[in-house]
Structures are given as structure tokens and as C-alpha cells.
Amino acid sequence: MTEEESALTAVFHAQPDEAGATIRATACSRRKLRAMYRHDFILRLIERFGTALRSLRDRILRREREDLSARAEIVEIAQQAGLDLAVARTLTPDLLLMWLAPTGEVDAAKFWLMAELLYLDGLDARASGGEGWRAGLERASTLLTRLDPSWRPGDRFTSAGERVAEIKVLLDPAEA
Questions:
Q1: Has residue 99 been placed in a domain?
Q2: Which range of residues forms the domain containing residue 116?
Q3: How far is CA 60 from CA 55, 65, 123, in A?
Q4: CA atoms of 93 and 1, how far apart (whole Å)
């Protein structure tokens, strides 16, 4: 736990002082603490689903899957992470950004996970000859371009910049 996290936790769980007054965290500190816990939760989810996401990507690219299994797995992972892939598919890239970050504050882990899900959904649609695969990849790219290109949730995962480069090749092989 970092120094800031320790301080926020100490303030949040403080006991009454000698005069009997309860020390309370400010609203700002509470929001920071909640945001920190939510960010950590999303990172743990990404770590938990990381192997499944990589395995699913490999199966899609090698077409080693049953037709409906990949989509069902992608939707299940999104639901377990508290993300609604069906809604994300219907939004334009600008509306998707507003939906995921209504205050304008980007949660890198949340953006990366949603982008990865949209990317896999687009790959699956492309592999099965479905429509809309380009739009899915474009949505994923839009989210990833809002992150630092080197950002990744862990060493075992693809960085935002690497995934954007891969998506560009898929969308326009002539550009590569």
C-alpha cells in the first residue's frame, strides 16, 4: 500500500479523538479512496480474466472455437467486470467516451478492459465473416488512444500503443 493509500485508509477508519469528536474523511478523500479501490478492483479483474482474454484471442485468430462460444465468453467477461458490451456496441466512439468517463476523467484500467473486449468482439466478428467488425475495432482504438501508449495493466498484457498498432493493421493492411 502506498503512503497516500495508507493515509487515506487511516483517515477513513479513524477513531474518535480525545475530545470525543469523530475524525471524518473529507468528501474528496472518500472519493479518492473509492476511486482507488475501484481502480484496484478493475486491475484485479483484468489479471483474473487475462489468461482467458489471451486464450480467447488466440482461439479466434486460429479459428479454433465453436461459432457462438467466443461471443458468449466475451459477453460473460464483460458482465463479470460490470461492463455492458451490448450498450458499448451501439455507441459512436464519442458517445462511448462520454459513457465510460462522464466527468472526463479516464480510468485507464476500465478503458483498457473495455477496449480489449471490443477488440476481441471485433476479431470474432471478422473471423466469422460478420458485419460490424470494423466499428468494434474502431471503438477499441478510440479508447486505447486516450491512454498513454505504454500503459498496460501488467507485464503479461499488450500495451495500449501495441494494440492500437495491431488494430491499424487489421483495419488497413496497406498502411502497415
A1: yes
A2: 43-175
A3: 9, 7, 7
A4: 35
Q: Whole-angstrom Cα distance, residue 14 to residue 10?
A: 6
Nearest of 45, 107, 101 to residue 77 by alpha carbon: 45
Phi then psi for residue 63, to 5 deg, are 55, 40
Q: What's the pLDDT tens digit per position in 49-63?
A: 666 677 677 677 666
Flag whether pLDDT at 6 surpasses 60. no
Taking only the tens place, the pLDDT of each residue in 10-41 is 444 445 444 444 444 455 566 666 666 666 77
Evaluate whether residue 104 is within a structural domain. Answer: yes
**pTM value?**
0.69
Residue labelled with grid coordinates 492500437: 164
- Number of domains comprising the chain: 1
